[in-house]
Specification:
With 194 residues, the chain is of the alpha/beta class. The chain has one domain: 3-Layer(aba) Sandwich (Rossmann fold). It is built from 5 helices and 12 strands. The chain is globular, with a radius of gyration of 15 Å.
């Protein structure tokens, strides 16, 4: 099943925005690069990609996007946050810098770089609750892990270290990079909930 032309913003301040845009377009959505508050107008959903979470936090402020994004999320905008995007969506960031501010749109606490440094990157096949088609190939790069899950948050997949895929209402967050594994099922699942 393909998305019916949903207009999906991809935060393009830093990180693999183009890879997410390519996946969304392949599924029939219309990706829109978001760099300014005006780019959020009219989007049906938003992807916050990976990257470096402290830098992403600072860029949200300097671009003016943070306030507009917070307003849209308060109005129910569906969000997919991957890796640093998960960190940005969390209620609290463990091991973050004092000048790093998350959006607080999912009631989870996350630990940055929970699996180690860049050289400790790895791939794992995950059993994802409610995702048809078998295990999902997940790519972890300096990935966070969920240290606390609040009420109302569903854990959809995890590893021994803790949850790595959670959903809260219209927000889906992953500790890994679904855009790198060549499997579009998570993007498809996100589009189906718009």
């Amino acid at each position: 099943m393909r998305a019916s032309g949903a207009k999906v913003g991809v935060l393009a301040l830093q990180g693999p925005a183009r890879l997410h845009a390519r996946a969304l377009a392949e599924l029939g959505a219309e990706p829109v690069e978001v760099r300014t508050p005006a780019h959020l107008v009219g989007v049906d959903a938003l992807v916050i990609p990976g990257g470096e979470s402290t830098t992403l936090s600072l860029l949200l402020d300097s671009s003016g996007v943070r306030g507009a994004l917070e307003d849209r999320v308060a109005d129910g905008l569906p969000v997919l946050g991957t890796c640093a995007g998960m960190i940005m969506c969390a209620a609290a960031v463990l091991g973050g810098r004092v000048d790093q501010h998350s959006l607080g749109i999912v009631d989870i606490d996350v630990r940055r770089n929970a699996f180690g440094r860049q050289r400790d990157s790895f791939e794992a096949d995950l059993d994802v609750e409610g995702l048809p088609g078998g295990r999902f190939p997940a790519v972890f790069i300096r990935a966070p892990v969920v240290a606390r899950v609040g009420p109302g948050v569903e854990v959809l997949a995890g590893l021994a270290e803790g949850p790595v895929l959670c959903r809260s209402g219209a927000v889906l967050v992953t500790a890994f990079h679904p855009e790198l594994g060549g499997d579009l099922r998570l993007h498809q699942s996100f589009l189906e909930r718009i």
